[in-house]
Structure formats: C-alpha cells, structure tokens
Write a structure and sequence with these properties.
The protein is α+β, with helices and mostly antiparallel strands and 155 residues long. It has helices at 2-8, 77-88, 119-150, and strands at 17-28, 37-40, 46-52, 56-60, 64-65, 100-111.
Length: 155
C-alpha cells in the first residue's frame, strides 16, 4: 500500500499497513434455507455462513497477521479448527475439520494502528483512510480519460 501511495499516486503518507490473512472453509451444506447467517461471537467478531454452490456452506473468515509471500497463502489447521468450532455452536450437528471439503485464503492490507488484537477496527480505519485515495484515483482516471477522448490526431 505504501508503495502504491508513494510511487503510483505520488502521495506521501506516514500511515502503516500490515498484511492480514483471511481464511474460509467449505463444508457439505449444513444450513436450512437460502439465507446467509452472521454468527456473532463472544469476542465481538462475526463469522458468516453462506449457502454455496447448491450443496455446500461457506464459512469464514479469520483475520490473522500474515508475513510471507501472498501467493503462498493457505488456511492453517488452526484456522480450520477455529472456524469449525465457532460454526458448531450454531449448527444442528458439529462441523469438524474432517468435514471440510475445500479451503481458500486471501491476504489484504489493513491500516496498522498498533493494536494487535483489533483487526476488525483496522478494516474500518482502512476504509476511512483509503476512501479519499479512491476518490483521488478516480478523479485522476477521469481526467486522463477526458484528455484522451478530447485528443484528435493532427492537433
């Protein structure tokens, strides 16, 4: 993020970001109906369970700091067990790691406010921090598009 701000957008910033891995599990369908569930956890986190591809349920997500190549990101056994345990509190029958048919993970940059335990707050801070940058980038793109569309050969 710092590289894009500095090198692509020409914006100097003292902000810091950190990489956070979000992992998801997919199990055989364990929900009734076609509605997504938001599963509020005792620690304030929210885990979701969403009907997926007719026969499956997608459960996620984790938020863990990630240090490594984003191309190598994968759900860890601990994350899989964590999501199974949390989902099991709400399902008719327990969700176990051996029920997982597939996992996927991604890495995203979040604003680093120095509070290692509050990843959810970092997401909100990132949105507030980056919104003006998206507007700036959009304005720049519109200017470039207008400049190109106003150009005619031979001028």
């Amino acid at each position: 993020v710092e590289t894009v701000l500095r090198d692509r957008l020409g914006i100097a910033s003292d902000s810091r970001t950190r990489l956070v891995r979000g992992s998801h599990i997919i199990v055989r369908r364990c929900l009734g109906g076609d509605h997504a569930w938001l599963l509020q956890q005792p620690d304030g986190r929210i885990v979701f369970a969403i009907p997926y591809e007719q026969d499956f349920t997608l459960i996620g997500t984790t938020d863990r700091d990630y240090r490594g190549d984003p191309a190598d990101v994968a759900a860890t056994p601990e994350e899989i067990a964590y999501l199974c345990e949390l989902a099991s509190h709400y399902m008719a029958k327990p969700v176990r790691p051996e029920d997982v048919v597939w996992t996927y993970s991604g890495v995203r940059p979040l604003f680093d406010d120095g509070d290692d335990g509050q990843t959810g707050r970092m997401v909100a801070c990132l949105i507030i921090f980056l919104f003006p940058l998206f507007v700036h980038a959009s304005e720049q793109a519109n200017k470039q598009t207008h400049t190109r569309s106003s150009y005619s050969p031979g001028e």
